[in-house]
Specification:
Elements (H helix, E strand, L loop, with lengths): L25 E13 L1 H8 L8 H14 L1 H4 L8 E11 L9 E13 L4 H19 L7 E11 L6 E2 L2
Antiparallel strand pairs: 1-3, 1-4, 2-3, 4-5
Helix pairs in contact: 2-4
Length: 166
């Protein structure tokens, strides 16, 4: 691993927002995922549309998009971005589809922007908040749900170009 400086720490060791004013606008995209594990009965309620609070997947999808747009309000050194794309896909995961055997919902968030800084935080926030929304809507029947595997899968654009999780 090469030695790199943390961009949000100045030469005095103080936290700062990175100055991106001299950077060129480029198209950027980021894809992040998350997974919320739950009891099979809880997943059945979601898939069958029988959750007491309503359509869990539709609500989580909207919450994820809204979260992407609010990321700079939540993450202190994150730049406000004029997001050009925010998409949240949710897929039920049944027994046998994951190595660990867990069932639940996989969240895949894709965000895009034409700008001076990356959009990874927006994709990560979207996937996290979508998982949190599923938890909120189903906690009455399954308080043991676990949010896990929130991670960046891909980012492209800017000076560093393409990065993909191997």
């Amino acid at each position: 691993m090469t030695e790199q400086n943390l961009t949000h720490i100045d030469e005095k060791g103080e936290v700062r927002m990175v100055d991106v004013s001299q950077k060129a606008d480029t198209e950027r995209v980021a894809v992040a995922e998350g997974f919320i594990a739950m009891n099979p009965e809880t997943l059945d309620l979601i898939v069958e549309g029988k959750a007491a609070k309503g359509d869990v997947l539709a609500c989580a999808r909207v919450a994820g998009v809204m979260a992407a747009k609010q990321t700079s309000s939540l993450i202190p050194m994150c730049h406000p971005l004029n997001i050009t794309k925010a998409k949240v896909d949710l897929a039920p995961v049944v027994a046998g589809e994951r190595e660990d055997g867990r069932v639940g919902v996989r969240v895949l968030a894709t965000c895009g922007v034409t700008g001076k800084t990356g959009i990874e935080m927006e994709a990560l926030t979207a996937s996290s908040v979508a998982c949190l929304t599923i938890y909120d809507m189903c906690k009455a029947v399954d308080r043991g749900m676990e949010i896990m595997d929130v991670r960046l899968l891909k980012k492209d654009g800017g000076k560093s170009g393409l990065w993909e999780r191997s």
